[in-house]
Amino acid sequence: MAQVKGQAKDISVASPNSKAKLLARNRDLSALLAVAEVATQSLDIGKILNDTLDKSLEILGFDVGFIRILDSEGKRMDVRAARGLRSPEFQRISTPVDERRNVTRIVFETKEPYVCSDIRKNRLYKNRTMEREGVVSTAAAPVLSKNRVLGIIVAGSRKYHRFTPREIRLLTAFGSQLGMALENAELYDEASRSKAYIESLVESAGDAVISTDLEGRILTWNRAAQVIFGYAKDEALGNHLAILVPPGREKELEEIQNKVQLSGVIRNLEVRRKRKDGVVIDAALAVSPIVDEQGNAVGFLHLAKDITEKQRYEKRLKELDRMKSDFVSNVSHELRTPLTAIKGSVDNMLDGITGALNEKQMRYLARIKSNADRLSRLINELLDLSRIEAGKIDLRPADISLVALTREVNESLRPVAAEKLISLEVASPDTDVSAWAERDKVAQVLMNLIGNAVKFTPSHGKVTVGVRRNGDEWVEISIADTGPGIPAEEAGRIFDKFYQVAREDRHKTKGTGLGLAISKALVEMHGGKIWLESGAGRGSTFYFTLPARQPLRSGEPAGSGGG
Ligand code: ADP
After folding, report:
1. 461 touches ligand 1 (CB under 6 Å)
2. Which among 369, 353, 212 has a CA at the least distance from the CA of 285?
3. In this predicted structure, what is the pLDDT of residue 362?
4. What is the rounded CA–CA span in Å between residue 107 and residue 141?
5. What is the torsional sign of CA 417, 418, 422, 424?
6. Are 111 and 148 a contacting pair, CB within 8 Å?
7. 506 pLDDT band (50/70/90 cuts)?
8. Strand partners, 530
9. Which end of the chain is more exposed for a tag (fewer CB within 10 A), N or C?
10. What is the dihedral of CA 476, 480, 485, 490, to 10 degrees?
11. In what helix (H) or strand (E) does residue 194 lie, and over which residues does it extend?
12. To 10 degrees, what angle do helices 2-11 and 19-40 make?
């Protein structure tokens, strides 16, 4: 309303104490207020234009008038409201503001009113549409907002009329009122468009999006929230979020809110929630504070996903996995007993306990023995892996000397290497490198890796085992060979169970494909890593790391952890 007063001053007649003038001023003021009122009553642009035109013409006492508004590109003005003009042709007039000289352009450029008492004598009214409608006199004023012309407002008369200064002032003031009202409506329009856009995003989100005030009362509720929790929007709004919390867990909400207020956002919080029908579901939550312009927390935003199915599925997978491990370990166990009997009997026969054997019998028995040995290795490896996977193996780490252990493993493999004339050595810059690990497990890993290196390296090749410290925390063991190498595209899968690189001479290097999978599991049990560097034809180097010392248990003062 402050603007209304300002405008009123402009059009007031500045002469004191004359009763007539005072009356006139009051009349003008109320006219202005009346237009301001209709113009600002609505945020709908069409309604603003029509109401303002009606009221302005009514006050000024004219029966013809129209409003043109600048298009969005600022190039043309289109008729958006008209009174007393019947021809459809007139409604279609769209006037460019930057081409030839015309009244619309003059008002647009000067930002001043333009008055013409007889348009028949004015060459600017070239297209004669008004004349054909019988209009004789017109006055046009700019629709102004912040010194920007948004359009023009025109009043006209079918009788010859000389516009008074008061009429012109009023029409100009109405134009300004209209400009202000349009500006408001436009801002509102923009704001409501972006609001509607965000609302539609939230509404179509796949996750429940729920906002609450600081007390936890629900303020917004989208479609996914309805699907997940079963409450319709009008049932949920205004209720406390506690309607979603299963009995006995009421404290949880408060804890979540406190945490959010302290630390900002909580993500991936797995909780149980209650649906409207009482069914309890598993949900993954993300909760963040809602802050106002000053940065004060005014509420909370909850995003929730129903993960009941996922949880159920994961539980089932774990169960299946356990069943599989149990099965493997049972079967392996059952296979071992008869295999031990077979091996014992073959050994006895080979030892001559059952009498002398001819050469053919010896050969057959040797083959049985070698295959029985392979079978028993396979069973042992399967059993190992299933135990590791089932988490049934406890680690009993201690401080062990790695160089000594590596030498020991090398010695046990030396006969195999010697047979192929492969040189097998340990290269360590330090004689004393210790690790925090379980001796037998590390021996098993070394046996697998050095055993593979010897197995896959052709005669006259070389296998080198390196042991070195890697920073304070880790030791690194490497096993390099001069064998066929492993193609880069297979390196990623080599640690998978049963994976073997396809080779022409595969029959010579029969194995189980489990050694590397077991080694990886054993290294990772210690907290270490295992990897390889290789390429077809370049030989392979396998690496693994182990912790150098016992990790400090939390809560213990540094230095007292031993190691
Ligand atoms: P296995 O040796 O019983 O087949 P592993 O899991 O120990 O099972 O090894 C899997 C496969 O990785 C081997 O079959 C072989 O193809 C490849 N491999 C492992 N070590 C080497 C190596 N040092 N040089 C070349 N290939 C290797």
Report:
1. no
2. 212
3. 93
4. 7
5. positive
6. no
7. low
8. 544
9. N
10. -10
11. helix 165-204
12. 140
Backbone angles phi, psi at 50, to 5 degrees: -65, -45
The DSSP code sequence of 460-484 is: T-EEEEEEEEETTTEEEEEEEE-S-
CB-based contact 456:483 (threshold 8 Å) = yes
3-state DSSP assignment of residue 61: coil
* Ligand 1 site, residue 31, Cβ cutoff 6 A: no
CB 458 within 8 A of CB 483: yes
Please report the pLDDT score of residue 270 as a whole number.
93
Ligand 1 site, residue 494, Cβ cutoff 6 A: yes
Radius of gyration of the chain (CA): 46
Which residue has tokens 């302290």? Answer: 262
481 lines ligand 1 (CB under 6 A): yes
pLDDT at 474: 95
Residue nearest to atom 22 of ligand 1 (CA): 453
For the cut 70, the answer to whether the pLDDT of residue 170 exceeds it is yes
Residue 140 near residue 172 (C-beta atoms within 8 A): no
Structure tokens that stand for 415 in this block: 């006969």
| Token pair of 171 as six digits | 């029409």
pLDDT at 151 > cutoff 70 = yes
Residues 446-462: tens digit of each pLDDT: 999 999 999 999 999 99
Specify whether the CB–CB gap between 389 and 521 falls below 8 A: yes
Confidence of residue 14 (pLDDT cuts 50, 70, 90): very low
Give the residue, by CA position, lying nearest to ligand 1 atom 8: 513
Tokens of 389: 């996977």
**Distance from Cα 374 to the centre of ligand 1, integer Å:** 16
Cβ 457 under 6 angstroms from ligand 1? no
Tens of pLDDT, residues 198-249: 888 888 888 999 999 999 999 999 999 999 999 999 999 999 999 999 998 8
Q: Tell me how far apart the alpha carbons of residues 471 and 275 are, in angstroms, rounded to a whole number.
A: 54
Where are the alpha helices (H) located in 390-514, listed in sequence order? 402-419, 439-456, 488-491
Which is nearest to 542 in space by CA: 533, 551, 554?
533
Contacts of 238 (CB under 8 A, 6+ apart): 217, 218
CB 549 within 8 A of CB 436: yes
Mean pLDDT of the chain: 87
Beta bridge partners of 478: 466, 543
Record the tokens describing residue 83, joined without a space. Answer: 């009174």
Q: Decide: 244 and 274 in contact? Cβ < 8 Å.
A: yes
The answer to whether residues 67 and 55 touch, using CB atoms and an 8 Å cutoff, is no
Cα 64 to Cα 88: distance, rounded to the nearest angstrom: 15
